[in-house]
Structure formats: structure tokens, C-alpha cells
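Figure 2 data, in text form.
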Amino acid sequence: MRCRLLRTASMSSARQTVQPQLLLPILFNTILTLSVLYAPQPLLPTLSREFHVSREAAAALTTVTFIPLAIAPLLYGYLLESISATRLLKLAVSLLAVTELLFAASNSFPLLIGIRLLQGLLIPAILTALMTYISQHSSSETIQRSMSIYIAATIFGGFIGRAISGLIASRFGWQYSFILLAGSLLVGLLLLYRLPTETSLKLTRPQPQRLLQTLKKPSFLAIYLTVFCVFLVFAAVMNYLPFRLTELSGQADELRIGLMYSGYTMGILTSLGAPAISRWLRGEARTIQLGLLAFGITLIGLAAGQIWLLFATMFLFCAAMFLVHATASGLVNRLAGSENRGLTNGLYVAFYYSGGAVGSIVPGLIYRLAGWHGFLILLALICSLGFICSRRIKLAD
């Protein structure tokens, strides 16, 4: 009996925080997955010329990835209630590496769209599994810190994916960016075998009503709608920024466009500092609202016609966005407790990337009809709506 109690205590302690030896495969694969998602973004003007398609058609390389990202997490959230997260990770990372090689070898734009659609089904499998794995190895006291580290890895992946793809494309050609990513994913796959197979998942039969029950919980829907609005604005700016740069300067090549995403580095700092900022402001809700206010203000800076000012504004823009994202993701996991975190994270990722899908389509149409400033006015209105939603987050801070 004593041995059993000691073993139970040891297992409980192990779940208090993610063990250091597990962080490398988790963070490495997180970085690579986000690199795959965003690597084509600085290359959109190049791909538009290469395949003789319009600006909006080229932007669809992001849009078609966000659409399944917005739907599939709900399915994977249910799935992770029943099977091992590590098993799902190994399969999805393997297939993602294959799609990168196919993307590099493609000479047809419709085929590129099809590959990106498939990647949109694989990426949420990886992200939801990683978030669930982290949350299951963290206690209520450490979940905010663990999720902040995870969000920092996603931010770094988003930046390095864009910057490296721009650098390699400007030196060797756009295909080599995706060949490098394929090789890196194979390394990530090998690292996944260092993770112990998860055995503590509860084998429950998915029930559709659990989705509605989650949305009806206090503050959950308000948080989900807030991140929907925030990522809609963020995705719109990131997707159409390369075309704005080519309007302002004829020297905006792949490398210079990739470096415009350097503001992502500020996001790493604010995501890691999100728990401390929340303590200073005495609550996550106040932190989210402060981030949204700063986020909206940066849209004024993005209206400038000088590239150097756009570059500087991107640092505050990214810092504010990821302060909201890191705080909100940790908050829903804390509110969910130890039960149903797969479904909770699946809903979070679904709302998040639904915003990205809408932000990759609708603002682009406004950009064409009303120009860059009309584009920013629309985004300011959506940001205001996100702030209104955040005011409905009621917590005992």
C-alpha cells in the first residue's frame, strides 16, 4: 500500500510541470510546424509572378490552410480524449514532411493549393496534440507558465519560418525553402521518439453536447470570440503586408519582406512575460484588455507610407497580439481544470484560426476596393469588437 501511495505521489509530481528532457522535442516540433504554416507568406509576391496569378489568388495559399485549421481542431480535440497524443504527433509530422517535398516539386498552382489544404488538416493535429500534452503535464499553478513557453515557441516558429524562407528564396530559389523544412521535420520526428507514450488519457466516448457545454461555461465564449477578432486582424496584416511593401518600394525582395516580420521577436518577450504582467495588473482579463488597446493603437502606425515606420510599428503590433494570445490560451486551460483539455484547446485553436481564415479573405477584398487605409479602418472596427468581447470576461481576479 505504501509503495502504491509513493508511486501515485511521484506521478502527480511529474505532472506538475513539463520535464526539461521533454521540452526539446515539444518546442522543436512546435517551431517547425509554425514555420511550415507561414513560410510561403513572404514569398507571395514571388509566387504570384512565378505562377501568373493575382494577389488575392496568391494569398489563398494562406487562406486554404487556415480554413481546415479552423475546423479540424474540434475533431482532434475529441480524438485526443481517446488516443495517445504522441501517436498522433508522429503520424502528422511524418505526413507534413512529405507535403513539404511535394510543395517544392510542384509546377502547378492548383496543386500548391491542394497541398496547402492538406497541410491545414495536419497542422492542427500537431498543435492540438502539443497543447494537450503540455497541459496534461502541468498543474493549475504552472499551466500559465507552460503555455507561455509554448506560445513563445509558436512565435519564434512564425518568425524564423518567414525570415529563413525569404533568405533562402532570395539566394537559391523558393523551392529550397521547403526542401529545408522537409529535412528539419524528419529531425523533429526522430526527437518525438524521446517522448514517453501517454497512458493517462481517459478513454471516453466523444459526445457532441460537450462542445456546447464548454461554450456555455462562464467567460469561455468571450475568450474565444476575443482571440477570433485578434487573429483576424493579425492574419490580415501579415498576409497583405508583402504586397503593401511592394507598393511602397521596388526593392522589396523576398529577404527584405521576410525581415519585416522581425517584430515577432517582441512577441516572444511579451508571451513569456504574460504571467508577470497579469500579476502586475491583478488579472488576466485586464491583461487581455490592455493588449487589445495597444493592438488597436498600432494600426495608426501601419497607416504610414514610410517603410522604416512600418518596420518599427510591427514590433508593438506583434508584442500586443501575443500578449493577448498567451494570456488567453493559459486562461482557458486554467479555467478548464484537468478535465477535457483536449476539447478546450481544440475549440481555442478553432476560433483562433477561424479568425485567420476570415482575415485572409475579407480584408483583401477591401484592400482592392478601398486601398490600404480602407483596409486598416476595417481592421480597427474588428479590433474594437474584440475589445467589447474581452469586457465580458468576468473572473475573480
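Caption note: Residues 21-198+210-390 form a domain with the Growth Hormone; Chain: A; fold (CATH 1.20.1250.20).
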